[in-house]
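Minutes, project check-in
Item: structure for the 527-residue chain
Input as provided by the requester:
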Amino acid sequence: MTVTANVQIRQNSSTRRRGALLGTVSAIAAVAAATVALTAGPASAQPAAPSTPQMIAMYDSPAVQLVTSNEHATVTWYGATVDLTRLVTFANQDPTTKAAWSGNDFAGASKDIVAEFARRASSYLSRGAASRVASGYTSYGSAWGISADGYLITNHHVTEPTDDATYISGATGGDSAAGTPAAADAVVASLARQLATIRWGTQDLTVTADDQATLQTLAAKWIAITSTVSGRTQAVYVGGGQSVKASDPGKPAQIIRTSPSTWPHEDVAILKVNATNLPVIPLGTDAVLQAGDTVYALGYPYDASFGSATSDTATVTATLSTGQVTNRLRTPDGFTAIEESAPTNHGSSGGVLLNAHGQAVGIVTASDSSTEKDNGVNGGKFFYAVPVSVVRKYLAAARVMPRTSPDQAIYQHAMVLMRQSHYSAALAELRKIDADGFSTPYTKMHMQMIAQAIAAGQDKPMPGHQATLLLCVVGGAALVLLATGIAIYRTARRRTVVAPVMPNPQNMYWPAPPAPAQNTQLQSWRG
């Protein structure tokens, strides 16, 4: 009985303590619930998936970057030296040519010799003096962040080095504005002078207008075949549209992985810049895209960014265009490309194709050339994108895992606040991430717009700010209730008398096994 009485006293005492504590906790919970209800803002103040073109532009524009590729090389082209001895031998041995000059038909003899020379030029020509021309190309494209630690996606053809033929054509084509003749013109003049040294007595070989045209074709082929390209360099930069000056193209970018070919094959490249807080675009899926779905293209089309009357400003920003999926096409590589109607042109290549939730579903890659053929303008009527499923394959091969920085979530929240005219709250968020290194032209732009709106008296206070004083009062009451609960607990503990007893294993409360630790390690992303 003694043991039972002691156990009963302990149980009653524990019941009183638990009751007091439960009452205190319940009161505190009620106070906390009331406080949350008073101070919580509307649900719409939290970041939501973009559903309008405006929100898609605000969310995703910082992640779309301007790609600048600067290339340099030296082109060496050669003059042409004619083996006149062999040509004279031909003229003396060929019956037709010999009969022509013997009959004083010098025009006919000249025509025969030029025709023979053009027909077998490789056997009559050798390289002459070398001329070297420094050549360079700057091209623009678009890219978009895929991981906060500096990885971006673009097209292979955006970063593909310029081929030798383009270098040679550009370096030897001459500059009419500077009065510099084309290399082929110089070769033609040299050939004509050398051929004119062939004589029949006192009669020089004549080069007619038709012969000049023949020599022009021959010289162009000679330049293309014999010229060489050396000393190639290429520097790729990602600037985020912060500057249109060649002296400030942005951050140097490394080409991590590219596809082996360009459109209509897999046209993908992965770039890497030195960054820890790069804005990114979340990946969606292209498998569910159907004809009629709305899509958005974000990039830096050349005409909009650099070719217009307003492009000579200090900064340029990404251009958003809207269209629909119009078809799905099977490519030679076996993937299903996206045909869509969101207008793009040169410079948009490498940009991102977005769905209605602001997720990447493809890379803006190509357009048909119908409009260009008709009137020489950029763009076309139909536009094509490499699907994001192909992008995932290249990311997996490069072991690149998409990752978003915490500051980007803050930026997106600030955009929601800004759209709701909570300018002060939005400005505080933007200042926080700007100081943390999440600094883009868009962050600065929005901060300026917000400051102007606040100065104009357009700021709406956040719901719950009016409850600050009430929060302090309620918080004080909670502290009082907590102190009371603790006092009751201590009093009940002093009144408990427990005699020494042997524990009954059946009545013992064993501590619960520890909950398994939550695995917070990032899982490996797989395409």
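Outcome recorded: The chain is about 40% helix and 20% strand.
No further action items on this chain.
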